[in-house]
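BUG: 3D viewer hangs when loading the predicted structure for this chain

Environment: internal workstation, default settings.
Expected: structure renders.
Actual: progress bar stalls at 90%.

Input used:
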Amino acid sequence: MMRTRIPNVLSIAGSDPSGGAGIQADLKSIAACGGYGMAAITALTAQNTRGVTGVHTPPAAFLTQQLEAISSDIRIDAVKIGMLATTEVIEAVIAWLGTQPGTAVVLDPVLVSTSGDRLLEHDAEAALRRLLPLADVLTPNTAELAALLGEAEAARWDAVREQAARLAMRYDVLVLAKGGHLAGAACPDALVGRDGVIAEVSAERVDTPNTHGTGCSLSSALATLRARCGSWGDALKLARDWLQDALLASDELDVGGGHGPVNHFGALWAGRRAPSTEALLTTWWEGIAGWRSGIDSLEFIRGLRDGTLPVDEFHFYLAQDALYLRTYSRVLSRAAQLAPNRREQAFWAAGAVGALEEEANLHRHRLGEAAEPVPSPTTSAYLNHLVAADASYPELVAAILPCYWLYQDIGRRLAAAAHPDHPYADWLAAYSSPEFDAATTEAIATVQRVAWRVDASSVAAMRRAFDASSRHELAFFAQTSTDAAAGRVAAIDRAGADGWANAAAL
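Structure tokens produced before the viewer hung:
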């Protein structure tokens, strides 16, 4: 069996003897996120959770000696740079980075500690600016972001993003705009480049005083996860969710009387694995690209888009969809029963009611008092798949998700082509509405939270359930009232997602 290569990640930063920030936090973060951590120490501090009482900076030549010793022997996949303290130290780092082309570099431009203690000499700021363009990503907090631009600190999220964009443009780097120091219930982060936002994530703010070392921890996690997954956007999503867990678990620790540290190993101690792209829903979505392309290529979808779909074919689809939604409502109710918290219980319960309302309002309006339809083999197979997943909450919600996500994706694009006299405008409007968008966004976020908190085998089972539902969605759209559909449905069963990349030829 091929082993996954564990990335070697080097932290160049100061030491925090209390263990919550600096090198100590970096090494914990790297390990928790699945990397092998190394450290070149730039400064020694005397500090605890209440503040910094002293800083000692060893000669810059010794830092160079540390860096050369590591790089002459060990492959370095990513570098995180933190506290640098003096001009001489910064110049040593600049010179060494010139010998490491192609290595991913995350620079946390540490100017002032969370407790307000200055950690960079004033005359070193000019040298720091020469270092900035050598990094791939900068991760300043709002105060540091403003200082690097020579502007007032932003108090609103849109202003923080605008400042990040200006800094990204000035130094031709990516900048992580961070909302942790802003007021409000949400805590957003965005990775911003010269061409705009690459990735943005947000979560509910964790109400905790344990924020010592959050900047160090996030930047080292970002470097590690970029080395593991190869994408800065995915690395941000993984790092933020990991940090959210670490903050939520911070009360399990009892460290100091000031701003305590995050619990870097909270998830691991709870039995979960290091963050991975296997649990990242954007990876799942990309994995069904062939089936999504197959849906787009179907005559049914093309006719629905331009309004030429025969009415009898649309009514056949609606009748099968009405049957589907009745059982789907029961499946959503089952998800609400299994959900481990009130938020998820309430969301799935509301979805169950919404599915019945959709069946009543749209389908009965279109179908009238027509005879009760008979479920097709395709419809029955999809429903049997959903019902079979109801013993496991993670698998069940993963199986449920494609009905939200694929319909939103299809609905948005079809609605863009609709016109006021479109014969199926009511159906198109239902799946492109702000309400359905909001429900889909919450469904994706809910399933993502579930994927983060379960073990690797459960994630694999969730992915299989998600893929199977996506295949059933394609088969559901491919079926028609004629026997000609049988060949298409059989082909779906034989082919994987990749095999459907050229579905238009069928």
